[in-house]
Amino acid sequence: MELTHGPLRLRPIAVSDRRAWRRVRERNVAWLSRWDATTPPGAESRPRTFAAMVRGMHREARSGRQLPFAVEYDGEFIGQLTVNNVVRGSAQFASVGYWIDESYAGRGLMTRAVAMAVDHCFFGLRLHRVEIAIRPENQASLRVVEKLGIPEYGFAPRYLHIDGEWRDHRLFAITREDCPKGLESRL
Fold first, then answer.
1. Spatial distance between the Cα atoms of 61 and 48, rounded to a whole number of angstroms
2. pLDDT, tens digit, for every residue of 113-125?
3. Which of 15, 93, 155, 163 might form a disulfide with 129, Cβ 3.0–4.6 angstroms?
4. Which CATH superfamily is 3-186 part of?
């Protein structure tokens, strides 16, 4: 599945993205490390290689539980967006996580990418609800949900293990009824 809007493209992340992914991650260590998920002590370890991470994401995608996207702008890898924890049955929801190269932040690209992904969740996958959890001090990510008009519905103390500690998160969610024309129509 590929989603495009002009020069912005969401496509399945691939093992062949390793060099571009690593280059962006290394260039943005200070920008991204405060928001990166980490493995708590005693938990099952995370994949040790990029290829193992991508293979795991593809397994989850084949099972219908995840959509792992590379984010490209003008053909250049600039970040990642993942639709996680897809739940079917009576719930019909998922969560979205994302990161972007700092040199592309503030241009509305991730806002558009999130809108594209949420619209695909609603109109392609027929999900009912999409959630986004954001650390309270992550102003750039908070701006994404603000621009899209995704309402805040709660606060989760010590919600995710981020940057070596259990961190609080603000919780945002939107349903298909909240945006019958899609989130992209709000931009």
1. 20
2. 999 999 999 999 9
3. 93
4. Gcn5-related N-acetyltransferase (GNAT) (3.40.630.30)
